[in-house]
Amino acid sequence: MKLYDELEARGFVDKVTSEELIEKLNAGGLKFYIGYDPTADSLHIGHLASFNLMKIFQNHGHHPIALMGGGTGMIGDPGGKNAERNLLSKEQIQSNINGVKKQMSQFLNFETENKAIMVNNLDWLRKWSYIDFLRDIGKNFSVNMMMTRDSVKSRLTREGEGISYTEFSYMILQSYDFYELSKLHDCQLQLGGSDQWGNIVSGIDLTRRLSGKQVYGMTFPLITKSDGTKFGKSEGGAIWLDAEKTSPYEFYQYFVRQADEDIIRYLKVFTQLTMEEIAELEAQVKNEPYKRAAQKKLAEEVTRTVHGQDTLDKVLKASQVLFGAAIEDLDDSTIANIFKDVPSTLQDKKVLESGWNLIDALVETKACKSKGQARKLVQSGGVYVNNNQQKDTELQLTHESMASESYLILRTGKKNYYLVQFK
Fold this sequence. Notes:
Oligomer: single chain
CATH class of the largest domain: Alpha Beta
Radius of gyration: 27 Å
Number of domains: 3
């Protein structure tokens, strides 16, 4: 399948600046870029579509350039924001770039013949004086045109809000990036979300004015959910790629929970599965939706890409815990996520030093109403510690009984879980 056909089939095409670009896309060999503002030390799953897009381009012989906004990130894109951003220091920006670069290397090949490269726009923006930049670059921009941009208009039309000159000038700097990448790396194409169309067109126009070169732009639709809510957010906030910010288990479960109405579209933009494989999963969604095969496949593919096969194996094991699988080799974060909705109690770790009688534990955690009830339940085989059946009424729980560093899990019957946290 030719590249442009694949992009259309996956739903990646929003707008292109010319029909000529389609031929160049199918021919291969283009150097292209996507820009990222390093406003945090980790990217989130909202970036996954653009990563996958770059990978698809690379698979078809094109050369990816990941542009880090070390300069523009200190200003901030006004698009998609209701208010002025908090400005970050140079040190914060650089620290964020280091974190993002590590994550991006999991997606793009930086060693193949058409290897990806990462550049920082601070390298060329910091060379300018304010006066020189206004004289040589600013003169190419019409304020009338800049005022028509949706990112600016939306801020100006909200009562009680506005936009600073700092953010207003963002599009000039972003446009200049395209010119510099064209000059330094022979970059011919900028990709971006549909909200970046105006900035991309401005960059194309500036590059033509300054160098006479013909460059191109293409946008892809922003990822949304069928119910209108924003993709990439949970009740706890953004779903991050950094395992320290979002546990791999929580990351995996986010994708498993996606609606049938969205899942095929997500498989197309977030994975490298072939269109034939996706068609098979689509048939399963229609015929056996209760199996959630497509959701599980999406979660597995994305978790493997972001966190690796070993971590995925642990996540899959953890996902079976609520169905009675053994609780072993799980860390505190994963256990806390698995059992976040079950009754929990807090205990002093000292009770484990001399042994905490199982019967006492069942009563104190309110898993049983009385010691008599607890004894009968244990004797009948209805009590489990970390999903292991226990029939000894004299069992003493110790440090060796722990499921992880801080947690122990009691269960009565098939599905009544009780989480015990030790401090």
